[in-house]
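Usage example:
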Amino acid sequence: MDLSLSTRTEGDRTVVVVGGEIDVYTAPKLREQLIDLVSSGQYHLVVDMEGVEFLDSTGLGVLVGGLKRVRAHEGSLRLVCTQERILKIFRITGLTKVFPIHTSVEEAVAATD
Amino acid sequence: MAVVELLLSPLAAHVRTARLVTVTAARRAGLEDGLLDELRFAVGEACSRAVGLHARHAPGVLVRVTIEDGPAGLVVTVVDAGPAAGPVPDDVSAGIVEGGDLAGDDGEHDLVDPDVALALLTGLVDTATVEPGVTGTTVTMRWPLPVAARGPGATAVSDT
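Running the assembly step on the lines above writes:
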């Protein structure tokens, strides 16, 4: 399955809904999406990963790149993920310490630092 | 023993092909369903790493992926012709966060950082081994197969 991306606005947050496989082939699309959002002034992002079936370290790198870009504008990047197979990737790499990971979009949108 | 061998041009799109073929072969070999995700993620990581290294250092050389099932279980080997792997880093998150996009900045391929990929796949698979050599690196991953899956067919083939 290829990567699917869609965005919507909820209050001052932009929700990016990601589905399919984030790998070395598809990660550039996600990267472009995140760069476009930051370029257009959207600095508070929620990335909904509930539909993601595969994630590799290239995808992790793109998410970290997105986090750095929004932080440069005092923004935030929160993840929504409850899938154990994807959470395991974040745990192994220690990125659970870097990303706020929420169990629902509602929770992520409502969250403040 | 049954063997599937893949030779991949170093194109990012082929990494998915390698994942699909490996999972299909593993399922056929009788690997437990509960281990298929681990295999998919680990093989994807190993192949991303190898394809990225070849694209940068050996674009004319094919990445070799071998899937074998037999008495030793399911053994997947990924052989690359890139620079030999260094030690697997202990603290991956620091490297990721300080190093920017793992992907480097080439835009077209978003190549995976080889050290982070190794750390991730060895974190996923306890039995993974990384052997740097003169001409590249061999990553070997093993998974147990149920005895029934290794049964008479596999034994008969290996005895002949």
